[in-house]
Design brief:
alpha/beta; binds ligand PBG
């Protein structure tokens, strides 16, 4: 009689039949940075720190040593530098370009990814430029925003970024950024597009970390409705046609169906972002002693990989890489 349990009998057999493997090479570590010379623990994300540039370089190096191939940078910009037109985002001497240069100088082999969006720089806290229409409603301008995103992407490329990651969800930004990068000679700088980024309540702790919450309104006119799956297919087809190199789904854990669908729709590699709220949920349950941290974190990551993600942006990257290195038991 067929007995599936035979393939589960011992750790060695389970290791042989295992369909999905997790490795530090699957992880991308998101890193927060600020202008201060001291490091600040982020209250809304226990265990996560906002780094000075100097500490950021050290932290990135530690991740690289653990086998993590890439980091993605998220800056907290000083209030005095935030303006309605967000023009600090393409200042060549700004925080992010300086950080890219410092990381690249210390760890040339590490892949540096940057976030392309206006929210940390924009006094309105939106990913795009804000205007008010005759009725007094808030409008997020699409094409005008893209012009600025292109300058931001080129600025990051000039500083040495390997990949730029537009997270703004404006229409047509992948095509715009691709042609600006090419025009400036950055044909080898890749685009990791936030293809299916949902208007999720799970970004709350992140906005606390960067003080980047919208001052008014929400992001529902540009980020996707959590109820929609077909629309993710449409976004994936567009981003692929526009020249994206990697497609991202975000959040990850509650959107495994979207990851699987995007994987199936496109031939491009798929990334998934286990976001701040997902981190916080797992972390709080573990801190309360209610769930086993190592077990739930590794299970959450393997599930995201099994769904079809080739790479995972996760705040647990260093911790998970350490656990995987310790794990020789095939348990
Ligand atoms: C903003 C951006 C956000 C995140 C990454 N880039 C927040 C938002 O869209 O409001 C969220 C990441 C997280 O929650 O971990 N461009």
């Amino acid at each position: 009689m067929p007995r599936p349990r035979r393939n589960r009998r011992t750790p060695a057999i389970r290791a042989m039949v295992r369909e999905t493997q997790l490795s530090p090479a699957d992880f991308i570590l998101p890193l927060f940075l600020h202008e201060d010379e001291t490091d600040t623990p982020i209250e809304s994300m226990p265990g996560v720190t906002r780094w000075s540039v100097e500490s950021l370089v050290r932290e990135a190096g530690e991740a690289f040593k653990l086998g993590i191939p890439a980091v993605v940078l998220f800056p907290k910009i000083e209030d005095a530098l935030k303006t309605p037109d967000a023009d600090e985002c393409f200042n060549e001497e700004g925080l992010v370009p300086r950080a890219i240069r410092a990381i690249k100088a210390a760890h040339p082999g590490l892949c540096v990814i940057t976030d392309v969006a206006l929210d940390p720089y924009n006094s309105d806290g939106h990913d795009g430029l804000v205007q008010r229409n005759a009725a007094g409603e808030l409008i997020i301008l699409n094409d005008e925003t893209i012009d600025i995103l292109c300058q931001q992407a080129v600025c990051h490329a000039r500083a040495g970024a390997d990949i730029v990651a537009p997270s703004d969800m404006m229409d047509g930004r992948v095509a715009g950024i691709r042609s600006s990068l090419d025009d400036e000679g950055f044909i080898d700088v890749g685009i990791m597009s936030y293809t299916a980024k949902y208007a999720s309540a799970f970004y709350g702790p992140f906005r606390g970390a960067l003080d980047s919450a919208p001052k008014e309104g929400d992001k529902k006119t540009y980020q996707m409705d959590p109820a929609n799956l077909q629309e993710a297919v449409r976004e994936a087809m567009l981003d692929q046609a526009e020249g994206a190199d990697i497609l991202m789904v975000k959040p990850a854990g509650l959107y495994l169906d979207v990851i699987a669908k995007v994987r199936e729709t496109s031939v491009l590699p798929v990334a998934a972002y286990q976001v701040s709220g997902e981190y916080l949920m797992l972390k709080s349950a573990a801190a309360g002693g209610w769930l086993n941290e190592r077990a739930i974190v590794l299970e959450s990551l393997i599930a995201i990989k099994r769904a079809g993600a080739s790479m995972i942006l996760t705040y647990f990257a260093k911790q998970a890489a350490t656990w995987l290195a310790d794990d020789k038991s095939h348990a």
